[in-house]
Every structure is written in C-alpha cells, then in structure tokens.
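Repro:
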Amino acid sequence: MKEIIFIKTLFKKQIAETITHAEREALYAWLIQDRNEIKARQIIEEVLEEEEDITELQEGLFKSEPEAWEILENKLGLKTTPQIIEKTKPVLFFRREIWKWAAVFTLLLMATWWLYKKNVSEPAIAETVQTIIKSTELGQKKTLTLPDGSVVKLNAGSSISFSQPFTNGGTRLVSLKGEAFFDVKKNKAHPFKVITENMEIKVLGTSFNVKAYPEDQNEKVALVEGKVSAYNKEQNENLVFNEILMPDQTLSLNKVNGEVKKIPLQQADIGWKDNVIYLNEAGFEEIMEVLSRWYGVKFEIEKGDRIKIPDRYVGKFENKSLMEVLEGLSFSIHFDYEFDNDKKIIYITKSAINENK
C-alpha cells in the first residue's frame, strides 16, 4: 500500500512538473517492470480523478482540442506534435469529457514509458571497429579483395591493415609495409588512402604500385592509371613533399637524405604482379635481396668473396623456378652456388672465372 501511495505521489509531481530527477528515475524504474503495468493504469486513472491541477480540463478552460494536447505534452515533457484534427470552433469541455482526456493522457505517458523501457532494455550498441591484417611470407604472393571491391596484390614479405567497417571516418584507409599493387574502385564520396612508414598516397580510383619495405633505402609509388597525390606524413618534419603523379610516372623517396624524384615508370617497378622478375642495372646485393623475397630463401656469400658485376646486371625472368634463375645468373655473372634445401639457404662462392677479374 505504501508503494502505491509513493508512486501516486510521483505521478502527481510529474503532472505538476515538480518532480526531481531522482524521483523521475525512480518512477521510470518502477514503470519498466512488466508486473506493474496494470497498477500503473489504475494509478493514472485515480490521479486524474484526484489531481486538482487538472481542473482546467474538467472546467472547460481550454477552447479547443489542440490547446489541450499542448498542455498535456508540456506536463509530460513531450515535444512531439501529434497528428490531430484541425482547429475547431470554440468548444467547452465538461467533466464528462475527463475520461476521453484520461485515455489521451494515459496514451502519452505510456508512450514515454515504452520509449524509456526500450532504451533501458535495448541500449544502443556502438559499432565495433576491427583492424584486419593480411600478410605474406617470403616467397609468397597473395591477391585479395577489400570490402569496397578494390583489388590488392600483395608481394612477398608484405602486410596491409585496414579497419572494418572499411569507410570508418569517411576515408578508405590502408596501411602498408612491403609492396602491393592496388586496383582501386572509384568512389568520390570515400577517398582511398595508403599509408606507409614515410608517406601517404591519396586517390579516388586508379591503379598503382607502392613499394615500402622498412629495410629498403627508398620508398616508391608507380602510377599505371588515374591520378594520385603523394605527400609526407604530418609527423615527419624531416621529409616534406607533396607531389602529383600522372600515369607512367614513378615517385622515388630516399628515406636517408629526403630526396624526392619523379621518373618514368619502369617495368621493374610493377613486373612482379605478373610474376616477372625485372633486374634493371642491379648490383649483386640487390639481386640477392630480390630473390630472397621472391623465393623465400636466404643467401650467404663465402667470407672474403665479393662478386663483381662490372656493368651491373640487366635481365628478365618470367615464371621461372629458383634453380632456373640461379642457373642463368651464375652463367652470366660467374659465381658458384650450393643449395641447402632443409635450411633454405643458398651458399654463394666465386667461380674460377670471377676470381681472375
């Protein structure tokens, strides 16, 4: 009985707009319990009969139905304007109309109750952002499709990461370590951006290659189709640049001295995606580095040996096995090799011909 009296008092305070925040929370906490629904309706009816503050409705002081709605809404703290009839000619509301307005009042209060209950029992779940990482081992390549339909070919010893949902924040953002070729789906509303250790590349829809192995001295962006903007990361004050690339151009960034060059695109920049090794005036160390990533092996040169390539090496190997490549290189550059298949190590020594040079 004490509970009913207490709740009735809170209802009256709600109508009179004198209820405190803590009291309103207590009222709503009681309302959202299913077992109290019938009690709540009975209390509302009793309050409407007893409450002196609603004599305005009983005595006909409101001249039209919209005016009565407005007062009821104000008392309940509701802002929604109901879709009701147009203004009518002045009409007097007598006590016999009280049950009509009791029903209206109950409906409004129950709507508030229902909304509050829904919000409490079904809180909004914040969208969870996940970071997706895709990577390749040495000797491995991988083609994958991003959530927006863009296609990425990931070179050996590389990794990319992106968030899910992909357009979180409005930009399609991909972080890259290593090398990848991007065929980007055009979407003007959501620009596509690739972030490496030292630069950012922003595009709308295009095809381009990014090479950014941490151990390399240079980072490169090679554009095949479309248009890209390449610029330094904000936190790197020692490397400041902002370049626009057009098709068949390559941007090369020297991470040591900060030099930025735009040069014509070479097949050596993008040939890997078609399973072709291009060596363009490459020294022996560069050749070993390329083969190590491509085939997932290590090279060890016999101590004291230095393989000389007088004019630097130019060559092309398309869909060749490691043994076929080594056979061709050893014949041209003059070195001997021994392959430890268990350890995946290739031991390089000078050949008799190279020793005489």
